[in-house]
Structures are given as structure tokens and as C-alpha cells.
Write a structure and sequence with these properties.
Length: 212
């Protein structure tokens, strides 16, 4: 199967990434053409448009990590709002679709809203990105000043925090400072692989409850 990108049709093989020169107007035309389709994913950087068709493992890994985050937030009694899919856009500057995002400190600002006015209302507090195809760059979130980005790549979690005007790798999450998030995620992936995701998350919740 070959990549096909025409005014009538957009079709990419699973796992492929296509980079095109393009303007903000070109990006808008492609997003309108895609409509409500979640595949392929689309991203805009000044002068460049990227299209990516994710592999099945992409969605599975995003789901597992998001479920770990939800279990940890519930354990801590934290309120939150979560979104997937969602398109973040700053005209002429950026367009991006995170795999999963959470509002934790700022959940009340977006609760119940159908649309978010990027650049005026707060950006997500936490973004989760899965990189299977070298499509992801944490610096894509700099224009939005997302405080924390989790990047899962090659079976490893890296936590990036916004410090001044750049992202820096850190060892712990600002939202879970006393929790070894990477260890929990690694264990959940092991159990999910051997059995299934529901068992992995159920056992995580039981472990958290036993530590109270």
C-alpha cells in the first residue's frame, strides 16, 4: 500500500509518516478534508505539515499510560479532565494532536466545555505522547507552554518539564512527586502483555489501595 494524498483522498499505510512543505492555509485545507477522521494524524509546524498513520500498538500504549495516570489521580483524590482525541491550534504557529492530555491544576477552566480557545484558556497540564514512528517532538508543545510532557519511546518513559523556555528531562512528575511512575507503567505493560490491560490496571489500583 502506498501513501496517497490528493484533494480527493488521503490514505497512508499503517506506521508511515509523510512530511510535506505547506502553509497554515494548506494545513487547514487538509484538516477540513479529513473531517472527523482520527487517522491519519496531522501536525503543523511553520512551513511544514506532517501526516502519520499510527500502528495498533500506538493506541494501546497511550491507553495503558492514560489509565495509569487516572488510577494515580484517583488514588490521590485529585480532580481532573481528560481529552482524547483533541486538536490544539495556534494560527500560523502550530497545530498538533496529542495522544492524551489531562487538565489537573486547571481542570475547572475546561470542565463542561465543547471547545477550548488555545492561547487564551489554559493548555493541558499533562500531555502523553507515544513515539513509534519518530513523529513526536516534545518541542512542538513549547508554543502552548504545556507544563509537563510524557514521551513513551522504545519501551521507556521520559518525563519532560517546562523550565523557562525549554523542556528538560526530569526523574519525577510534578503531579506525582513521591511516586515512581515509570516503574508502575513498566509493570502495567508487563501484566497487560501477559494477560490484558484491565487486569493490569485492576492490580495497580489494588496495590495503591493496599499502601494506604
Amino acid at each position: 500500500m502506498f501513501a496517497v494524498i490528493t484533494p480527493e483522498k488521503i490514505q497512508l499505510p499503517a506506521g508511515s509518516v509523510v512530511r510535506l512543505p505547506g502553509s497554515w492555509q494548506d494545513y487547514q485545507a487538509l484538516t477540513e478534508q479529513l473531517g472527523d477522521r482520527s487517522i491519519p494524524r496531522i501536525k503543523y509546524r511553520p512551513g511544514e505539515i506532517l501526516l502519520m498513520s499510527p500502528l495498533p500498538r500506538h493506541g494501546r500504549e497511550a491507553h495503558v499510560i492514560a489509565m495509569v495516570v487516572i488510577a494515580l489521580l484517583d488514588h490521590l483524590g485529585r480532580d481532573y479532565e481528560a481529552f482524547t482525541p483533541i486538536t490544539m491550534e495556534l494560527p500560523e504557529i502550530s497545530g498538533i494532536e496529542p495522544d492524551y492530555c489531562f487538565y489537573i491544576d486547571n481542570w475547572a477552566d475546561v470542565a463542561g466545555k465543547d471547545r477550548i480557545n488555545w492561547g487564551i484558556e489554559p493548555s493541558p497540564d499533562l500531555v502523553i505522547e507515544i513515539d513509534v514512528t519518530s513523529y513526536t517532538d516534545v518541542n512542538d508543545y513549547l508554543p502552548y507552554r504545556v507544563p509537563e510532557v510524557w514521551l513513551y519511546k522504545k519501551n521507556q518513559l521520559q518525563i519532560y518539564q517546562l523550565q523557562s523556555d525549554r523542556y528538560t528531562v526530569v526523574t519525577s512528575s510534578r503531579f506525582f512527586p513521591n511516586i515512581n511512575v515509570s516503574a508502575f507503567i513498566t509493570e502495567c505493560f508487563r501484566i497487560a502483555s501477559e494477560r490484558n490491560t484491565s487486569v493490569a490496571i485492576r492490580e495497580l489500583r489494588q496495590k495503591l489501595a493496599s499502601e494506604n
